[in-house]
Amino acid sequence: CMRWIITTWIVGLTLGLPTVCSAQIYAGAAVGAGGANIRVGSYGSGFRGMARLFGGYAFSPVIAAEAMTFDLGTPGNRPSDDSTIGAFAVAAVGTLPVQRWRFRGRMGVMSMDGRALGKTTRSAQAMLGLGVDFAAVRRLTIGIETAASHVEFGSPISDTVRVNWTGL
């Protein structure tokens, strides 16, 4: 039995090694704006600044795996508001390269925290995103992206609200 496990592991490593070795590591940052889709005037509604850090492995020019973290901070129109939204996510990324342009789609799972009135609620939600990038120079890509997920704030805000963000 142990021989079978070792043989399977060696064969799997041998078959997977070219894919792992040819992967390109990438990283980046995005800044922009976001917001929770809560009724207007509700505690926690409003536009927020957004910062997102990401990195991943591009297994080929069209397929990648990515991890990211982002923070939407507090609504800009309510400085005393302590509601924040933050998240960590993993996603599969599909890319359609067209000359110096890259059209991207992300689909993954996001662990999102919603904080309001000193209470933090964490929930796992699906995340979908679309983006377009332009290779300005050899190692610099500039783009715009938009994505959406949900967050659970709990009472007194709402059970589940839609969260959208757009970044450069």
Protein model, in words:
This protein is 12% helix and 62% strand. It has one helix spanning 2-22, and strands at residues 24-37, 46-58, 63-71, 84-98, 101-116, 119-137, 140-151, 161-167. Strands 1-2-3-4-5-6-7-8 form an eight-stranded antiparallel β-barrel. The protein is globular and about 50 Å long. The mean pLDDT is 75.
What is the overall pLDDT average?
Answer: 75
Strand content: over 45%
Structure summary, number of beta strands? 8
Q: So how many helices?
A: 1
Lateral arrangement of strands in the main beta sheet: 1-2-3-4-5-6-7-8
Structural class: mainly beta
| Overall spatial form | globular
Calculate Rg over CA atoms: 19 Å
The quaternary structure here is single chain
Which sheet architecture does the biggest sheet show? Answer: 8 strands, antiparallel, barrel
Give start-end ranges of low-pLDDT stretches: none
Helix content bin: 10-25%
> How would you spell out the order of helices and strands?
HEEEEEEEE
Distance between the termini: 53 Å
